[in-house]
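Open question from group meeting: does this chain pack into something compact, or does most of it stay loose? Before anyone orders reagents, we agreed to write out a predicted structure and look at it together. Recording both the input and the output here so the notebook holds the full record.
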Amino acid sequence: MHSGGKRFKSARVHHRRLKRQKCLFCFEVKKVDSFFVLRYHIGMNDENKLREIFKEYNDEMKRHTGALLEDFQSQLSAVAEGVTMLNEKVDRIEQTQNLHTEILKSHSEILNAHTDKLDSHTEMIGGQMEYTSEIKIELENKVDKREFIDLKQTVLTMS
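Structure tokens returned:
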């Protein structure tokens, strides 16, 4: 793994110190080109100690994960409650909309009936206007009552 890079003095010293103590976990850091490489070694001399360290870590991770899960579940239940309330609100709005649709249909039917009546009244008024025009023409051709009396007297005097 050594391709021209230098080991860090602190990592090398740490590595040696751990090796002298028959370590469970040793590591060394090298710089290769512009990258840092971590090389590690897990000693199997005392496997029970290693398991104990990982057990503590696992227990802590389980507690942390449990806390995160509990928080997530409480937030999720709050979101679910919000969704439920929104669904209920949408249902109420839908019921109101259906009621308003029925009322509009009823008003449309009433409006159509009034339109039919208005059309028939318009026809009746048109007929009355024609009849009134005819009466007007007839009245213009009729003789006034005074003129009739004068005409009557003139005819009587002529006979």
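Observations to bring back to the group:
The beta strands are 25-32, 35-42.
The chain has two domains: 1-45, 47-127.
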